[in-house]
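Archive entry. Fields below.
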Amino acid sequence: MYGLIGKILRVNLTEGKITEEEIPEELVRKYLGGRGLASRYLFNEVKPGVDPLAPENKLIFMSGLLTGTQYPSASRYSVVAKSPLTGLWGQASSGGYWGVDLKKSGFDGIIFEGISQTPVYLVIDNGKAELRDAQELWGKNVFETTEILKEKLGKKFNIACIGQAGERLVKYASIMNDKHRAAGRCGFGAVMGSKNLKAIGVSGTEEIKIADEEGFKNLSEKLFNLLDESILRFGMGEFGTNMVLDMVNIVGGFPTRNWQTGVCPFVDEINGTALKDKLSPSPKGCFACPVKCGRMSEIRQGPYAGQKGEGPEYESVGTFGGMCYVDNLEAITYAHFLCNDYGLDTISCGSTIAFTMECFEKGILTKEDYDGFEINFGDAEKMVNLVHKIAKREGIGDLLAEGTKRMAEKLGQGSERFAMQVKGLELPAYDSRAAKITGLAFATANRGGCHIDAYVQGATFIQVPYTLIEDSQIEDVHKENPKEAKVVKDLQDVFADVDSLGICKFMCLALRAEDLSESIAQITGLQFSVEDLRKTGERIYNLERAFNIREGLTRAHDTLPKRLLEEPLPEGIAEGQVNNLKILLDPYYEFRSWDKITGKPTPEKLKELGLEDVIEQIYASE
Amino acid sequence: MIKVKVFLSLRKIFGQKEISSEAENIEELLRKLVKQYDGLEDALFKDSKQNELRPGIIILVNGRHIKWPPAISTPLKEGDEVAIFPYICGG
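PREDICTED_STRUCTURE:
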């Protein structure tokens, strides 16, 4: 097979049985690889109503169609499963080198099913796979687990693993690879923990076959050079992802004090410039990346001095800094490092702590709930303390480990208004009241409150036009313009392609749709046009939606926290703004050909996308 | 007076986070600043004719983006706040 290796591993953890399967060519044509291909397996194999932490849930790792090639940024793999945080379709993607090494090991992906009786880890060495006892690793965190396995297996092995948070089934536990890289969102560390699967070590020398080697090489080199000379490299290379913070704050959309306002007074203490000055980071890139937005940092002063790690990224600064109102960059960085070591999603973790701070502020939680302490906005020391408690499910940490949606359901007293989540997934650090269609993207994202499902803030907060879709121009970010619902739909579709190809979404601020479709044609040898690309993305997006519909999702779930819908931003350029979703949802459903009452993709749309088998599954009960 | 805030690598050129200036519009402001600060012309403009801004330059007036590519004729008035970014992406 061209592009993909053409094989997946199926690992039944209950029986300890490993089998190999060929990937049908038809699936590659329709779903590419990575997210799309894994989602097809999930839809076929996980029946509705399954408990995400039960043996019946499947945990699917899948490298992208381009992963491991010289195409710029082709480093990524996806994890797809039913999410314990949302109870819906979930996906998380990660870069680094692990996805590349998975493919080199001789398999595009792995499907884990069942639950092992005792802790195990999987080793794949050049096409040979075996499960090994992981009891000595259980209880250890990510950095130590990675070091022990590299020592045991050899340095050529690359490790993906969980820390204590995944073992203790924290609902937003992440899976970590390359020590510091996270498949962070949706709580797949907990799914891995529920299966008693501690780690996956991969190594190999399998080569990827390319149908048009010359054409693919030329295109990849051309794009690499384009990106190497682009503003992406100069900006991201010097300041990393946190460079966006000042901009988000100036437009009044930097969530501060758990989204009570969109303007933070101490941004100069925590922005990209501060990070560069205080932590002196050195750039660290993923496989085949010309931009290198990652950075190794060291905390140089204060109680956490000497701690080293990768990051922090903008989202960690946004949640632990803005949302928790902490102006201490060293504490923010340490909380971020701890998340990586315990294996926790920094967005959900920071957001949950910010929610907890507001619960204390409003008297919904009291000292009796927290060992005689209280935590106020801005309390850096207790914020760090809560990260430990969450990962270990100690005391109040056991409550926080469930995420904001479940916390609000338990605490009541109106706390659901300011539990900043959509479908159970905590929202990222962009206040959609300051850029309206961002709210539509949050409300409709298949995996819940997500900023990179549509990555629409490129068009809204930054206002850089995408060349990936026909039109991404936003006339006025403060107005809900029904026509602009199409921007969200088009971006969601094309980024489903991007996740399936295994490339980085940041590159897509500079790439054209043709750059993707041509690469697919060249690597697979198939005829593949821009129109095919758009249809493929739409197919994947509708399949994921159908999974959610089958789980009981309706239009009522496509919404935002009441704070965003009803509480106007109190200051800044976006003062007085709220999200009025009603104006955008109907046109969005029309652009999608989804039923405006039920939220289901219409049978006609599913047929058009070649998803005939899905029709009977989501219309069966009617 | 117009308040001008600069970010990221532009802060090296300005040596500070913000300055005050006077100008009728963005074009006049930028031309004035270029004369005042060494290295700014190269950071902002494609060439010495100063007709075209470098790709990636983002300018906001009072927290609102001026349209892409930046409309440098955008008028300014007393008390306006101009933010200039050399490039932005991420998050």
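CURATOR_NOTE: Chain A touches chain B at residues 231-232, 234-236, 238-244, 246-248, 250-252, 268, 272-273, 293, 314-315, 318, 428-430, 451, 457-458, 461-465, 477, 506, 509, 572-574 (CB under 8 Å).
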